[in-house]
């Protein structure tokens, strides 16, 4: 790839090998963002023989991907019975089904990558946090069961007998998983590069305009011409989109020191709850407990980081209620930012204001499963094929 600046290199960071190579000035598709979403899109498009250039102002996977706790569930932050009221039954059920299929798809992708991406199937347990939430659990169970989703309803006594967790009942499903998002991203980028993709890290895209070829990207390393551009920028909203399409939220996470024994949590299920904002937890392969949540509205990175000690203490208190018999010691804690839409669904599809521009904005708690969905939809759209599911996630909905 030869950028107009003539700088003869492309950089693979975050554990990927650095290689000097000739540069091109053109590509079929430019992808802005080299996190897990951009990597999945690049993998899908290079498999179709498209020439791809990925650009990221950070090292690959160092944005939202590195902060992700990577719980893979077909449930989204909006419960199915609630989502049906927002977008209609057909679209709500299809969105849930696409998330379920995305977990299966990701399992297959990880198996074919030939490297350990930390993918592991897990059950999921959705706890009713308060007595009044039992009605929500009942309504959600009915909606999912009516549409054929694998789900079981547990009583408070059943949850207590199996795990010892306090609750007012729960929904349990076997259709969940975990993955290492950074390992997955690196493996996908490596495969895309092996097919001819170029990766420009620490490269800032300053402007994107239309051009005779399609789009022109002005960067701090030169100018790139491409037929199409895909924005896969996590919570960072491209300048040409309305800034009110989603709200930003600060989220917090911690991981404990390793434990000798997880006790009755021997199936290592994912645990989350009906309270909003919800707290969630999962074990790691080395018997640590990863816990996240305590979300607050995002104001600035500085205020988010200043709030971290208090929010992490809240997470520790939640863990203490789940595991009163365990002595838990915090090892690490961190904060991140994500976007939320009014209906809990991502924005995937063509720009309403710019030709040859597409978006893969996986807002919400299901970022990685939405990324898999986005890769499938955008592959079709970039190839000029019809995709029936694109309507559900369109930007002008």
Could you walk me through the main structural features you see in this protein, from its secondary elements to its overall organization?
By secondary structure, the chain is α/β, with parallel strands linked by helices. The protein folds into two domains: 26-67 and 182-244 and 344-393, FAD/NAD(P)-binding domain (3-Layer(bba) Sandwich); 120-178 and 247-340, 2-Layer Sandwich (D-Amino Acid Oxidase, Chain A, domain 2). Helix content is 30%, strand content 26%. It has helices at residues 36-46, 64-67, 80-87, 89-113, 134-146, 156-162, 181-194, 301-322, 367-382, and strands at 26-32, 52-55, 71-73, 120-127, 152-154, 170-178, 198-200, 205-210, 215-219, 222-231, 247-256, 270-273, 280-283, 289-297, 330-340, 347-350, 357-361. Strands 1, 2, 7, 8, 9, 10, 16 and 17 form an eight-stranded mixed sheet that branches. Strands 3, 4, 5, 6 and 12 form a five-stranded mixed sheet that branches. Strand 13 and strand 14 (289-297) form a beta hairpin. Helix 1 (36-46) packs parallel to helix 9. The protein starts with 25 loop residues before the first strand and ends in a 15-residue tail after the last helix. Residues 1-23 have low confidence and may be disordered.
């Amino acid at each position: 790839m030869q950028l107009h600046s003539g700088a003869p290199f492309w950089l693979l960071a975050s554990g990927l090998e650095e290689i000097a190579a000739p540069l091109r000035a053109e590509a079929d598709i430019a992808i802005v963002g080299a996190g897990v979403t951009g990597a999945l899109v690049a993998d899908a498009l290079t498999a179709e023989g498209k020439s791809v250039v990925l650009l990221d102002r950070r090292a690959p996977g160092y944005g939202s991907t590195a902060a992700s706790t990577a719980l893979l569930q077909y449930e989204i932050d909006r419960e199915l019975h609630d989502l049906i009221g927002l977008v209609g039954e057909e679209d709500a059920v299809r969105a849930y089904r696409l998330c379920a299929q995305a977990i299966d798809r990701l399992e297959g992708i990880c198996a074919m990558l030939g490297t350990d991406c930390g993918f592991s199937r897990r059950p999921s347990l959705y706890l009713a946090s308060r007595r009044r939430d039992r009605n929500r659990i009942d309504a959600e169970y009915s909606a999912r069961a009516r549409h054929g989703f694998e789900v079981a309803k547990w009583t408070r006594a059943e949850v207590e007998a199996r795990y010892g967790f306090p609750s007012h009942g729960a929904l349990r499903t076997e259709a969940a998983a975990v993955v290492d998002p950074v390992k997955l991203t690196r493996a996908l980028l490596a495969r895309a590069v092996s097919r001819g993709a170029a990766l420009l890290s620490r490269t800032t895209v300053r402007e994107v305009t239309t051009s005779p070829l399609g789009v022109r990207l002005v960067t701090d390393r030169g100018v790139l011409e491409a037929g199409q551009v895909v924005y896969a920028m996590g919570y960072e909203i491209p300048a040409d989109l309305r800034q009110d399409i989603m709200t930003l939220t600060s989220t917090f996470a911690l991981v404990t020191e390793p434990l000798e024994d997880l006790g009755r949590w021997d199936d290592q299920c994912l645990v989350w709850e009906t309270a909003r904002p919800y707290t969630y937890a999962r074990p790691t392969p080395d018997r640590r407990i990863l816990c996240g949540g305590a979300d607050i509205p995002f104001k600035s990175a500085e205020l988010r980081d200043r709030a971290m000690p208090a929010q992490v203490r809240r997470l520790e208190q939640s863990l203490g209620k789940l595991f009163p018999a365990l002595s838990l010691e915090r090892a690490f804690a961190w904060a991140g930012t994500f976007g939320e839409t009014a209906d809990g669904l991502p924005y995937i599809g063509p720009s309403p204001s710019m030709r040859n521009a597409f978006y893969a904005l996986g807002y919400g708690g299901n970022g990685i499963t939405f990324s898999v969905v986005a890769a499938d939809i955008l592959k079709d759209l970039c190839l000029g094929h019809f995709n029936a599911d694109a309507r559900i996630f369109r930007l002008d909905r």
